[in-house]
Amino acid sequence: MSTKGTVNNENTACQILSFGEPMYEFSQIKEVSDTGADFLSGFGGDASNFAIAAARQGADVGMLTHLGCDEFGQRFIDLWEKEKVNISNVVNNPDAHTGVYFITHNNDGHHFSFLRKGSAASLITANQLPIESIKKAKLLHVTAITQAISASSCDAVFEAIKIAKANGTLVSYDTNLRLKLWSIERAKAIINETATMVDICFPSLDEAQLLTGLEDADEIIDHYLALGAKVVVLKRGSEGATVADATQRISISPHKVTPVDATAAGDSFAGSFCTHYANGLSLEECLKHANATASITITGYGAVAPLPTLQQVTARINDDTSK
Question: Residue 127: pLDDT above 90?
């Protein structure tokens, strides 16, 4: 692998490889503490959230990303090692910083402010990809955010998909839409093109309505299947979720919980679904696990702390079926 920077370990194969930008998080707390602090630090970034969620579900998962040689980057390394996320495809770039974002809250909900321009992850190029690791993975996970943060990162995603498809590696894709990063016109073009290449596509209803101009959930699913996605998993928020392929369509209702923070809900959903899909479970079982995972995630604060273990998810599913 040609890189500017250093790799943390020799490349090793992982069942699942998550490609994207980790971001260090500062989340506003409602009451200023005795020390005067009004932000709690933590971890975010959809690819990292996905990887940790998958690891907690028992997956052999690794990160594919670049970090700055800074304190925030080191904290991610420490986190992933603790969570048993493989870091052999994580590169430290001495000339760039790790991305940072802030979460603030008001009566309209939570809001995000980003310091990511020129981040190490956004500077990755197609010729810096760990080709052998992608070839050996069973599943590569990519997201639209990784495509939106820079032109070179977008090119790298397409190249990673090309490598995966040429070597029998499954590709999952979250259409995460962030209009602060790119125009709706560019987002539509890139996301539609990517959907033609993937095995699993994870749109969410509200964002898909913007991207497709369609309102009906089944029509949105049909849209992504027609583009070429083999499996479409539509996240419908308070209405639950639906999974579909060419021969079946299965919907599930959400678990009844009191949500406190939606951060990483979609990432945990995808991480859980892909873990069990890679392990050969049926689409219905994958959906059940993903639905239960997200329902637990939204009952805690932050992107990482509430991500559940497989034991917690299994208990939630069993509790639901026993009623």
Answer: yes
Give the pairing type, strands 61-68 and 16-19.
parallel
> What does the alpha-carbon distance between residue 149 and residue 153 come to, in Å, rounded to a whole number?
7
Cα–Cα distance between 42 and 106 in angstroms, integer? 20
9: left (phi over 0), alpha (psi -120 to 50) or beta: beta
How far, in Å, CA of 208 to CA of 83, rounded? 32
List Cβ neighbours of 45 (8 Å cut-off, separation of 6 or more).
20, 21, 22, 23, 99, 303
Domain 6-314 fold is: UDP-N-acetylmuramoyl-L-alanine:D-glutamate ligase (3.40.1190)
Q: How confident is the model at residue 160 (pLDDT cuts 50, 70, 90)?
A: very high
User: Residues 255, 295: contact at Cβ < 8 Å?
Assistant: yes
Type of residue at 107: N
Contact 121, 93 (CB under 8 A): no
Angle of helix 184-195 relative to helix 151-166, nearest 10 degrees? Answer: 10
**E-state strands within 78-137:** 86-93, 99-106, 109-115
| Domain spans in the chain, listed from the N-terminal domain onward | 6-314
Higher pLDDT among residues 10 and 311, named by residue:
311
> Distance between CA 135 and CA 149 in Å, rounded?
25
Whether the model pTM is above 0.85: yes
Which residues are within 8 A (CB) of 64 and not within 5 positions of it... i.e. 6 or more apart? 17, 18, 19, 20, 47, 89, 90, 129, 130, 133, 134, 160
